């Protein structure tokens, strides 16, 4: 039997989720310029109007993809912090593990992070959203993560991510990650 959009049971949340995931995938694999309503519709198997039902403009779609990636990243950081028994540097350790992929994460998880960075790097407004989130996290964790060393560690984690994303070979990334984690524990008072 042919799958007919008019006869399928309506599942707007599943469709919306698929639209976000596929727009994110296109962003990472082909670039933001390739994210169009038609391209996303074709991959998901809905009409262009079906995409427009969920997102009035391409900007609204991109913002939703970015916010979804931000929520996933923030959830990963928060989950790691909740499991960390040491408060000093806990945000930085969680940030490291959310940022540096050691290959144990599946492609889907990595795409959320990659999507976040690709969109942020290409759009001033999204960079402002990222900066606001980052600054709020630093303010919130000022008592535990506000040292020069921890700042450098987070910046190195970002650099490792960018190198990884760019295809630059990093010998023994796991060792680098472990050194960064050790640096988050060395200044405890």
Q: Could you characterize what this model shows?
A:
- It is built from 10 helices and no strands.
- It has 189 residues and is mainly alpha-helical.
- The chain has a single domain, classed as Tetracycline Repressor, domain 2 (Orthogonal Bundle), CATH 1.10.357.
- The protein is elongated and about 55 Å long.
- About 3% of the residues have low confidence.
Q: How many beta-strand segments?
A: 0
How do the helices and strands follow one another from N- to C-terminus? Answer: HHHHHHHHHH
The termini sit apart by: 67 Å
Question: Sheet bearing the most strands, described?
Answer: none
- Assembly status: single chain
The amount of beta strand, in percent, is under 5%
Residues in helices, as a percent range:
over 70%
How many independent structural domains? Answer: 1
How big is the Rg? Answer: 19 Å
Query: What is the second-level CATH architecture?
Result: Orthogonal Bundle
Low-confidence stretches: 106-110
Q: Which structural class should the secondary elements be placed in?
A: mainly alpha
CATH topology: Tetracycline Repressor, domain 2
Distinct helical segment count? 10
Shape annotation:
elongated
Q: Tell me the CATH superfamily.
A: Tetracycline Repressor, domain 2
Determine and state the CATH class. Answer: Mainly Alpha
User: What is the typical, i.e. mean, pLDDT?
Assistant: 87
């Amino acid at each position: 039997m042919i799958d007919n959009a008019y006869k399928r049971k309506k599942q707007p949340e599943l469709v919306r989720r698929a639209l976000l995931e596929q727009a994110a995938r296109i962003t990472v694999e082909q670039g933001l310029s390739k994210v169009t309503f038609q391209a996303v519709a074709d991959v998901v198997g809905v009409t262009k109007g079906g995409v427009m039902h969920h997102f009035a403009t391409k900007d609204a779609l991109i913002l939703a993809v970015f916010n979804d990636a931000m929520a996933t990243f923030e959830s990963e950081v928060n989950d790691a912090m909740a499991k960390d028994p040491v408060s000093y540097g806990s945000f930085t350790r969680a940030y490291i593990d959310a940022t540096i992929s050691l290959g144990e994460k599946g492609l889907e998880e990595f795409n959320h992070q990659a999507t976040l960075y690709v969109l942020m790097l290409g759009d001033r407004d999204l960079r402002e959203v990222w900066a606001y989130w980052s600054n709020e996290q630093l303010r919130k964790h000022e008592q535990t993560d506000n040292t020069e060393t921890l700042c450098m560690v987070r910046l190195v984690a970002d650099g490792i991510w960018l190198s990884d994303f760019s295809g630059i070979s990093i010998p023994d990334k796991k060792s680098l990650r472990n050194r960064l984690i050790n640096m988050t524990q060395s200044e405890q008072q």
